[in-house]
């Protein structure tokens, strides 16, 4: 989600989460603060879909950001699922380790897909995801 939020920040011309929070429209449920955005970026909390849609409605690159959001939310779900399966109490660095596992698995799958589509392909699908 942090990568997606960076793209959103670029669209708004924000240099940090504080500026991004000030650019976002008001939300009825709860204010969108810098602290909430940090939690979403860190994967500590999943950004509600309604807020994602609200953010997308304010962006000019709506289609691209919408696709990237699907990828980001999918990875956040997989990481959260793996975290829940690893232990009852998360250990230090467990989130980073889970992300590395997911990233390496996606790299491996992307290489296999790349080889089947075109062995001479220069642009790897993993670059599109990162």
Topology record:
Blueprint: H1 2-12, H2 17-23, H3 34-42, H4 49-57, H5 62-86, H6 94-117, H7 125-129
Helix pairs in contact: 1-3, 1-5, 2-3, 5-6
Please characterize this protein's 3D structure.
- With 130 residues, the protein is mainly alpha-helical.
- Helix 1 runs antiparallel to helix 5 and helix 2 crosses helix 3.
- The longest helix has 25 residues.
Task: Give the N-terminus to C-terminus distance in angstroms.
Answer: 11 Å
| Number of continuous helical runs | 7
The global form is globular
Secondary-structure element string = HHHHHHH
Strand content: under 5%
Q: What is the SS-derived class?
A: mainly alpha
Average pLDDT level: 79
Rounded radius of gyration (Å): 16 Å
Short description:
The protein has 130 residues and is mainly alpha-helical. The chain is built from 7 helices and no strands.
Question: What labels would you give this structure?
Answer:
mainly alpha
């Amino acid at each position: 989600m942090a990568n997606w939020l960076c793209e959103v920040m670029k669209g708004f011309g924000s240099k940090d989460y504080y500026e991004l929070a000030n650019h976002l429209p008001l939300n009825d449920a709860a204010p969108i603060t810098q602290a909430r955005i940090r939690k979403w970026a860190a994967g500590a909390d999943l950004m509600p879909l309604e807020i994602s849609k609200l953010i997308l409605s304010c962006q000019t690159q709506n289609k691209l950001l919408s696709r990237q959001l699907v990828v980001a939310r999918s990875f956040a779900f997989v990481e959260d699922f793996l975290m829940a399966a690893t232990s009852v109490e998360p250990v230090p660095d467990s989130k980073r380790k889970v992300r590395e596992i997911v990233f390496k698995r996606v790299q491996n799958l992307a290489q296999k897909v790349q080889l089947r589509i075109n062995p001479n392909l220069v642009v790897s699908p993993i670059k599109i995801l990162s």
